[in-house]
């Protein structure tokens, strides 16, 4: 599924105030060749609006090609469940969720928790 088929998330517009110099190691790790970032979120979601612009800025700083970043807009149903592209296949319950794959295999996953920025969390997972 291409990004055009999946849709786009306005919340994935890079935060222009994000300071890449403060996150050199993170940016370097995210720039590794062959990583695909699958991002589930909703422009209506407060957590997504708070977290995804900084993550997008980190991907931008890492010069990750647009074709390696896939957006999957999610809607929230009355019962709280999420619906959208590949939600069931990837077991998406909370957003934002970011799955990082290399050669079609999941190598890292961030789910909603905002104790550390998404980019830092994923870089730490990838470094292990």
What structural category arises from helix and sheet content?
alpha+beta
Write the H/E string, N to C: HHEHEEEHEEH
Strand-residue proportion: 15-25%
Strand tally: 6
What's the quaternary structure here?
A: single chain
Sequence stretches where pLDDT stays below 50 over 5 or more residues: 1-5
Most strands sheet: 4 strands, mixed
Overall body shape: globular
Global Rg: 14 Å
Tally of individual helices: 5
Instruction: State the end-to-end CA separation.
Output: 29 Å
What is the strand arrangement across the widest sheet? 2-1-5-6
| Rounded mean pLDDT score | 92
Protein model, in words:
The protein has 128 residues and is an alpha+beta fold. It has a domain at 53-84 and 94-128. The chain has helices spanning 3-6, 24-30, 46-61, 87-90, 118-127; strands at residues 35-41, 69-73, 75-76, 82-83, 97-102, 105-111. Strands 2-1-5-6 form a four-stranded mixed sheet. A two-stranded antiparallel sheet has the order 3-4. It is globular, with a radius of gyration of 14 Å. The termini are far apart.
């Amino acid at each position: 599924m291409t990004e055009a088929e999946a849709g786009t998330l306005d919340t994935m517009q890079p935060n222009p105030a994000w300071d890449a110099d403060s996150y050199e190691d993170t940016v370097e790790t995210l720039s590794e060749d062959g990583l695909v970032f699958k991002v589930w979120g909703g422009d209506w979601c407060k957590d997504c609006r708070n977290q995804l612009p900084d993550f997008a800025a980190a991907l931008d700083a890492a010069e990750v090609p647009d074709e390696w970043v896939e957006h999957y807009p999610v809607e929230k149903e009355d019962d709280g469940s999420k619906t959208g592209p590949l939600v069931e296949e990837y077991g998406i319950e909370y957003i934002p969720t970011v799955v990082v794959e290399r050669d079609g295999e999941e190598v890292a996953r961030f789910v909603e928790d905002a104790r550390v920025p998404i980019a830092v969390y994923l870089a730490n997972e990838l470094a292990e």
